[in-house]
Every structure is written in C-alpha cells, then in structure tokens.
C-alpha cells in the first residue's frame, strides 16, 4: 500500500511546477521518508484500533459477573479521565504538526548545505550554516519536548487506568454492602481481568499517537496531492512546414493561476539548427520563456508546439566515485547503546531504571496485599486507604520515571544531531563525492527520526519491562521447587524465540535503511533536476526507475510484517502450553500451596503470557531502532579536515 502511495506521489510530483514556490527538497524528503511511513504503520496496526473498544466492553461485562453493580465505578473512571486524555491528544497533534514543519525546514537547510558544500568550504561558511541548522533544530527540540510532555500524560493515564478502576471497583464493592467480603476467588478473577485490561489500555497511548501522527501526515500528503498541478500543453509536432522546432502563437503564461501574467501574447518560431540568444534585463522573463517552452508554466491561451524535445540527448555511462553502502551483520554493539545513553546522561537513565524497579515492586506489593486482605485485622476504611496509597505511589513513580527518561532522550537527540552535522561539515570533499545526497539525508531524516521518537518510546517501555519478569518468575519459582525448574525451562524457550526474532528483525531493519537511501537520493536529485527531466521528455522512465527502487525497499517491510505475525502465532501457542502446564501443576500441588498463593501465581502467569509477546517485540524494536544509532555512528568515524579556527601557533 505504501509503495502504491509513493508511486502516486511521484507521479504527481513530476506534474508539479518547477518554480517550487510552495515546496522544497526538505519537504519532499519528509513526505517520502516520514509521512508515508507513518501512514503505512497506522494501517498495519489499524485492526488493533478496531478491536480495542470491543475488548473493553467484554472485560467490563465479565467483571460485572463478579463485582456486580460496582463496575459502574470503572465506567465513571473512564468518563472522568476522558477530558484529560482528549486535551492531551489534541496538544500532541498540535505539536506533531509543528514538529513536522520544523523537520522539513531543517532537512531543507541540511540538503542545501550538502549540495553547496564546495561553495561553503571555498568561502569558509561552514560555521554560519551550522549555526543556522542548529537554530532550527533547537526549535524542533523545544516542540518535541512539549509534545513528549503531553505524551507522557497520555501514557501515565492509560497505563494507570486499570489500577484506578480496580481501586474504585473494590472500594465500591465493599462500601455499598457490608456483607461483601473480598474473597480469594473474587480478588484474583477480578485482578486477572484488570491485568488483561492493563494490556489493552497499554496499547491505547500507542494507538492514539499513531492515529495523531497518521492524521497529521495524511493531511500533509493530501494537501500536496490536491494542490494545483500543471496541465500538459506542449504539442509534439513531428513535421513542420517551415522547418520550425519551436512555435509559440499568441501564447500567454503565468507561474501561478492566482497571479498576473509573466509572459503575454508571445509569438515565436525557432528553426532547426539555428542559434538563438535571449537577451533582456534581470526579471524580464528570459528563464520563464525557456520554462514555458518545455511546459513548466501554466498556459492560459495560445499554442505551444515543439519537435522532439531535445532529441539529440544520448544516454551514456557516467564515471562515478560512489561506493556501495555497507551495513553491519550481527548484534548491535553495546558501544552504540553506551553512546546513546551517555549522550542523554547515564545517571538520569539509571535513575529511571531504579524507579521502574520500584514501580514493579509496588505493583507486585499491591497484589500481594489484596491476597492477604482477609487475614489482616484492619478496618475496611484502613484497608482502602492503604490500597489507594499504594496505587497513588505507583502512578506517581510512573510519571516521574517517564518525565526524566524523556528529558534524557531529548538531551541525547540534541547532542547526537549536533555532533553528526558538525562531523559531516568537517569531512573533505572526497567524502561527498563518494556518498550521494540521499544517503547522507537518510541519516538526517529517518535515522534521526528514530533517535527522536522510536528509541525513547521503546527505551521507556524496556526500562519498565526489564525488572517485571525477574520479579514475576522469581515469585512463581519461589512457591515450589518444581515451579523453579519450570521457570528455567520457560526462560530458555522465550530466550530462543526472542533471539531468533531479534536477529531477523534487526537485519531487516538494516536492509530497510540501506534500500531507503537510494530512494531518497533518487527523489531529491530528480526533484532538483525536474526541468531537465521534462525538457528531455523522460518523465516516464524516471517514474519507472523510482518504482523499482521503492519495490525493493518495501520488500523488507513485507518481510518485517510477516515476521511479526509469525511471532504472535508462535507466542500464542507457547503461551497456551505454559498456562496449561502451570494450571495443572497448581492443581496437583493444591494441598501444599495456599489458595492465595495459587491465585497469585495463576494471575501473574496469565499476565506474563499475555504480555510476553509484546515485551519481546519491544526489546527487539529497541535493538532494531538502535540500528539508527549504528548508522549515525558510522558517519562520525571518517577522517576530518583541519579545525575551522586555527591559532597562529598551530599553523
């Protein structure tokens, strides 16, 4: 679908005016590299968006079977939180639109710098242009920081919704009837359903952000696709009575239909093999006349005919210094993780990890407390106060962990981009002769986008998930020695699955990045040479070549989607076997283990089985997106020129 979308985009691009009045190279690269991918990713996960409301309704109905009318409090929690979620979503969309505009502006400046690098180095203008790009990047980071603020609010609210619902439901269940007692059966069946809702609500922030990004990207792309395009008016005249190859008869032309004429009532006839000079003062319309002849302007009246536009064009082989783009094989080196973490502050990321451990301990503690509810000789009010207190602490720690993790991520993004741009500007001209524009822009577009958005999101999730499974499987193993052997076996199975999936996904990500560079290079160079493409009448050939490059690129996407679906099917099978085995073992040892422990183990087993597939994908996505850091680091290791500012002693 994305390949078709890109093809249509290219087809329309070749029909735009070369005046480029409202479109620049940065915007074109942003459309192709970011917007179309965002649209594609949304449709891949679109089924999740459709299923989520039905899942919520079904699980609330099941809760009603055990908690009765108390589930109304769960619905009230959703209603109360809705305005905050809506407001945060709208603010995220606003800042997403602004960030995309700033990203396009930054890419335009970067593209201009790379294309004019010879001139910049001749006049020693690297530093002023570096400052210009850095200024726009600073604005982009400020916008991204604001967007992350509301994104964290969304994530915290939705990830805590199941806790607030559980707290409200249990409190209401006890308070509305003095005869209600939280029995083991009621507690753990309800908690199992709330844990399933946790995974459902955990997907909502991702789906909401994907929808926001999709909406922004779709509107941007549709604005381009629906914008004014050129109407072909050049008539190919194979034979001419007076041997003319260019004929204009009472022709009037303009760049924009909403503006006045640039050229009016022109009559021109140019004979074959004649030498014609167009002379005039600045702004008289000399370049416009040439553009009008090849079909670059809007024609309002008259005729424009030409014979075999630039028919003497002959194809030949160019001498190129361009090297094949290489990519790594195997695991992403730990040094790349270290560079990213160091750029954002090791201390801050470590603090977020400590908070994540406390969050998981608190979550486990809340469940253990509920399992011992009836054994603790406390009043109902004290029970509720303690449980609410635990929930408030968990939510507060989650918010703090999210904010400090994103603060470090913003710092890392800013530092990495600044170092990359400064390094590239210090490279000799031989670097730019052997590395095409699209390959360099790919680092500043898609790879930097991965650093800005993908890595922070998956890193935050990974920080929270890493302490979760050791705690859960440690709890399960501690209940019985036989369970401990089972936990080790489960760990080995999941490790083998995760290793195979991660290795394949990582290599596909590298291939996606490598095959994307030729696409961006082709788009940027084709757009810059649009006039020549039209003049030589080779538009269809260029569209065909672009289509071939795009097809090759999206074969990697197809394989990635197939791999994800295969993982989901495999994990569903393995998870079902594990859940069945644990259940049989618990029944077999029911006389040796208390009912509360059985409920606790079974509850967390269900939760682990449901979330393990997503956890493997998160850890894998973190590593595959760390390929962006790997590719950026590659462009930081070339030999540099001398310093821009040298003291007299060093000359």
Automatic annotation (TrEMBL):
Keywords: ATP-binding, Membrane, Nucleotide-binding, Repeat, Signal, Transmembrane, Transmembrane helix, Transport. Residues 24-213, 352-624 form the ABC transmembrane type-1 domain. It comes from the Eukaryota. The keyword Nucleotide-binding applies. The chain crosses the membrane at residues 56-81, 148-176, 196-216, 348-372, 384-409, 448-469, 475-497, 569-588, 594-616. Its main location: membrane. It is found in: Membrane. The keyword Transferase does not apply. GO terms for cellular component: membrane. Pfam families: ABC_membrane, ABC_tran. GO terms for molecular function: ABC-type transporter activity; ATP binding; ATP hydrolysis activity. Residues 1-19 form the signal peptide. InterPro entries: ABC1_TM_dom, ABC1_TM_sf, ABC_transporter-like_ATP-bd, ABC_transporter_C-like, P-loop_NTPase. It is a multi-pass membrane protein. This is Multidrug resistance-associated protein 1-like isoform X2. It comes from Dinothrombium tinctorium. The lineage of its organism: Eukaryota, Metazoa, Ecdysozoa, Arthropoda, Chelicerata.
């Amino acid at each position: 679908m994305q390949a078709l979308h890109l093809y249509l985009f290219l087809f329309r691009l070749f029909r735009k005016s070369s005046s480029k009045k409202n479109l620049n190279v940065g915007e074109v690269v942003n459309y192709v590299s970011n917007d179309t991918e965002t649209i594609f990713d949304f449709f891949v996960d679109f089924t999740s968006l459709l299923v989520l409301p039905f899942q919520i309704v079904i699980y609330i109905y099941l809760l009603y079977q055990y908690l009765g009318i108390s589930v109304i409090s769960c619905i009230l929690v959703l209603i109360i939180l809705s305005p905050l979620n809506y407001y945060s979503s709208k603010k995220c969309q606003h800042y997403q639109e602004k960030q995309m505009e700033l990203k396009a502006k930054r890419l335009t400046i970067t593209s201009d710098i790379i294309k004019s690098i010879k001139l910049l180095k001749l006049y020693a203008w690297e530093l002023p242009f570096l400052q210009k790009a850095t200024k726009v990047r600073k604005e982009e980071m400020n916008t991204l920081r604001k967007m992350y603020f509301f994104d964290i609010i969304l994530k915290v609210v939705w990830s805590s919704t199941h806790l607030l619902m559980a707290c409200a439901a249990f409190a209401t269940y006890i308070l509305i009837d003095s005869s209600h007692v939280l029995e083991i059966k009621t507690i753990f069946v309800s908690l199992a359903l709330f844990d399933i809702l946790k995974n459902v609500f955990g997907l909502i922030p991702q789906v909401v952000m994907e929808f926001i990004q999709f909406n922004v990207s779709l509107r941007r792309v549709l604005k381009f696709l629906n914008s004014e395009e050129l109407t072909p008016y050049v008539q190919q005249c194979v034979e001419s009575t007076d041997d003319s190859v260019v004929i204009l008869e009472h022709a009037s032309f303009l760049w924009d239909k909403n503006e006045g004429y640039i050229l009016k009532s022109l009559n021109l006839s140019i004979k074959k093999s004649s030498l014609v000079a167009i002379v005039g003062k600045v702004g008289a319309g000399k370049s416009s006349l040439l553009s009008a002849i090849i079909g670059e302007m809007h024609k309002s009246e008259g005729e424009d005919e030409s014979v075999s536009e630039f028919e003497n064009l002959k194809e030949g082989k160019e001498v190129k210094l361009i090297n094949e783009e290489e990519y790594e094989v195997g695991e992403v080196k730990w040094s790349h993780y270290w560079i990213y973490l160091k750029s954002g502050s090791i201390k801050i990321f470590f603090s977020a990890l400590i908070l994540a451990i406390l969050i998981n301990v608190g979550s486990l503690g809340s469940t253990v407390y509920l399992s011992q509810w009836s054994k603790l000789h406390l009043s109902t009010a004290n029970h509720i106060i303690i449980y609410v207190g635990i929930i408030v602490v968990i939510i507060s720690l989650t918010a703090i962990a999210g904010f400090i993790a994103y603060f470090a991520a913003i710092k890392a993004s800013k530092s990495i981009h600044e170092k990359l741009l400064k390094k590239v500007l210090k490279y000799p001209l031989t670097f730019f002769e052997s590395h095409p524009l699209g390959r360099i822009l790919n680092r500043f577009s898609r790879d930097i986008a991965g650093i800005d958005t993908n890595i922070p999101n998956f890193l935050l999730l990974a920080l929270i998930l890493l302490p979760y499974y050791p705690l859960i499987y440690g709890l399960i193993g501690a209940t019985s020695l036989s369970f401990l052997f089972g936990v080790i076996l489960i760990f080995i199975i999941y490790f083998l699955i995760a290793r195979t999936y991660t290795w394949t996904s990582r290599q596909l990500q590298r291939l996606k990045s490598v095959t994307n560079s030729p696409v961006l290079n082709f788009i940027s160079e084709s757009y810059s040479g649009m006039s020549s493409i039209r003049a030589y009448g080779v538009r269809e050939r260029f569209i065909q070549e672009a289509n071939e490059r795009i097809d090759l690129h999206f074969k990697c996407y197809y394989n990635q989607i197939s791999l994800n679906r295969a993982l989901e099917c495999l994990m569903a099978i393995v998870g079902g076997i594990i859940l069945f085995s644990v259940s049989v073992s618990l029944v077999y040892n029911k006389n040796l283990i208390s009912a509360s422990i059985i409920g606790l183990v079974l509850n967390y087993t269900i939760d682990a089985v449901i979330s393990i597939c997503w956890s493997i994908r998160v850890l894998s996505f973190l590593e595959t997106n760390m390929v962006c850091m790997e590719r950026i680091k590659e462009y930081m290791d070339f030999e540099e020129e001398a310093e821009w500012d040298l003291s007299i002693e060093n000359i």
